[in-house]
Amino acid sequence: MPLRHDVCPASTSPDAVETTATPTSTIDFGPLRISYDGRVLTPRPWTQIQSSWAAELLSHLPEGPVLEICTGAGHIGLLALSMTDRRGVLVDADPVAAQYARSNAETAGLADRVEVRTALAHEAVGRDETFPLAIVDPPWVSSQEVSRFPEDPLLAIDGGADGLAVARECLHAVDACLHDDGAVLLQLGNLTQVAALEEWLEQAGPPHLRVTELRAYEDRGVVVLLRRPEHP
Ligand SMILES: C[S@@+](CC[C@H](N)C(=O)[O-])C[C@H]1O[C@@H](n2cnc3c(N)ncnc32)[C@H](O)[C@@H]1O
């Protein structure tokens, strides 16, 4: 399958995106200074927990780079990488988000360890690539509910009819490149979505992944850990 993504080190800029077209804001995300603007989702402080959980897992996972799909401005993956010496591949369909991920990697001093790809989840990874950890932060608001968040870019929040459409796309993509002993940290909106995802995963066929642990953050969101069904 031909890949239709732009691949480059974080320090280069393949997308003709003007990041100063709208006012740039900055936010501290743990020790990282993250830039973004209104065209991408504003970093949410609670999601630092996804980064620290990733770093915790990485101390036990096989060698290899970290994959983050739906990286936005890159902060969750970058914070995780800053706590390890791993390399990372950060993916987002939105060229503006990808450009911020690149510049934020540079600001964080991580450009030499980070490759940013502007691509849809299902096109982002080559057949010969394997990752021990995937971080996935898909849009998870149902299409019916997106009007409740007029400030947020639609691409960043619209998860389709049940809020799980992009999550399913991402898990199919991850299934194809995850190490047998690998792990996935997936962000969702609530426990109802987790139950629906588990039901879908129980059905025959790929992706061959199961939810093994869950951490919920009040009413803000949920992060689930998925592993291969045969993983002890
Ligand atoms: C919920 S936001 C998460 C962004 C960032 N990780 C954060 O926490 O702020 C979802 C991101 O997924 C990207 N996205 C949406 N659909 C996608 C797809 N099919 N493939 C890859 N990225 C996608 C959006 O551009 C957006 O940046």
Report on the structure:
By secondary structure, the chain is of the alpha/beta class. The chain has a single domain (45-227), classed as Vaccinia Virus protein VP39 (Rossmann fold). It is 25% helix and 26% strand. The protein has 6 helices and 10 strands. An 8-stranded mixed beta sheet has the order 1-6-5-4-7-8-10-9, with helices on both faces. A two-stranded antiparallel ribbon has the order 2-3. The radius of gyration is 16 Å and the shape is globular. The model is unreliable at 1-14 (pLDDT under 50). S-adenosylmethionine binds next to strand 5, helix 4 and helix 5.
| Low-confidence blocks of residues | 1-14
Radius of gyration: 16 Å
Question: What count of helical segments does DSSP give?
Answer: 6
Helices and strands: which structural class?
alpha/beta
Name every ligand kind in the structure. S-adenosylmethionine
- How does CATH name the architecture? 3-Layer(aba) Sandwich
Please indicate the percent range of residues in DSSP E strands (runs of 2 or more): 25-35%
Alpha carbon gap, first and last residue: 33 Å
Strand order across the largest sheet: 1-6-5-4-7-8-10-9
Shape: globular
Tell me the helix content: 25-40%
H and E order: EEEHEHEHEEHHEHEE
Largest sheet descriptor: 8 strands, mixed
CATH superfamily: Vaccinia Virus protein VP39
* Average of pLDDT: 92
What is the CATH class name? Answer: Alpha Beta
Number of strands: 10
CATH topology: the name is Rossmann fold
The domain count comes to 1
Pfam family, one: Cons_hypoth95
GO molecular function: methyltransferase activity; nucleic acid binding
Protein name: Class I SAM-dependent methyltransferase
GO biological process, one term: methylation
